[in-house]
Each structure stands twice: as C-alpha cells, then as structure tokens.
Amino acid sequence: MNRIRRTRLAVIFALYIICTSIAAQGKEYNIAAIRVEGTSTTDKTVAIALSGLSVGQPIHIPGQEAANAIKLLWKQGLFSSIDIVAERYQGNNVFLLIKLEEKPRITKYKITGIKKGEISEIRPKLGLRKGTVLNDQIETNIHNNIRNYYKEK
Q: Cα 97–98–102 angle (5° rounding)?
C-alpha cells in the first residue's frame, strides 16, 4: 500500500514538472519580421545579426530566445538599454521590435585648464579615438592616465 502511494506521488510530481516546463516555454511562433529602433551609429542589420535572431526562426513567447538575444547584444558593450518586444501577432507569426539605446561615443574632446605644451603631452597618453564607445572603463583609464602623468612630473 505504501509503495503504491509513493509511486503515485512520484508520477504526479513528474507530471507536474513536465507541465510546468512546457508552460514555461510559452507558445511557439515564427519570426515574420524584425525591426530595430534607437540606433544612430550601429547599423540596424548588424544589430539584428548580433542578436542571433533571424526572420523565419521559431521563437517561444515567453521563452529563452529573446533573453539569449538580449545577452548577446549586451555582451557587445555598445548599448545601455536593450528591449525586445512583440509588436504584433499574425496567426503563427510574430513581428519583433528590438529597442536599443546606444552608449555615447567620443566624437571630439577638448582639454582645458592646462598649458598647451601639457595638452600635447597628455593627448597621446589618453589614447582616445573618434567613434570609441564611452564607458566606465574608458573614463577610469582617462582619470588614471592624467593622474599618472602628473605623478611622473
């Protein structure tokens, strides 16, 4: 009797696990189109390629595919905000929108408050180039390079 009870509980538990994993995957759709919004320097087709998503690909909503695409885009270090939404559904198809906010880029910079001779010495040590994405690491490097320049002096 006790053995039958344990078997029943094990079967019920296994069915529960199977049902919750199926429900967690969501419904499967085919990606009909992908649109990108919010990029000015990054090409939209490049952003789509970096996401790992493609038209015709099956996707579960909700599911891991969108989360994986966000992770892939985040690893690039180009964006400060990433969101993937389903704009609309048409039968078994979904139209996706990738909303991106790009991190600022260096277009030009000016050093003030020091002598012109010091500017010409510091500028190469900073190693800044036009188009470089400005992130926390770049800012820290700028501060450290300037600090080291004046420590050496």
A: 145
Sorted by sequence, the CB contacts under 8 Å of residue 126 that are 6+ apart come out as: 141, 142, 145, 146
Q: Where are the alpha helices (DSSP H) in 26-63?
A: 44-51
- Read off the amino acid at residue 113: G
Q: If DSSP codes are grouped into helix, strand and coil, which group holds residue 28?
A: strand
d(CA 121, CA 139): 19
Q: What is the pLDDT of residue 99?
A: 96
Give the dihedral of Cα atoms 113, 114, 116, 119; nearest 10 deg.
-100
Task: Say which residue the tokens 């300037």 belong to.
Answer: 146
Q: What is the pTM of this model?
A: 0.68
- Percentage of the chain beyond pLDDT 90 is 44
pLDDT for 126 equals: 86
Q: Do residues 79 and 100 lie in contact, with contact meaning Cβ atoms separated by under 8 Å?
A: yes
| pLDDT at 101 > cutoff 90 | yes
Q: How far, in Å, CA of 77 to CA of 134, rounded?
A: 10
Please, are residues 78 and 20 in contact by the beta-carbon 8 Å criterion? no
10 has a pLDDT exceeding 60: no
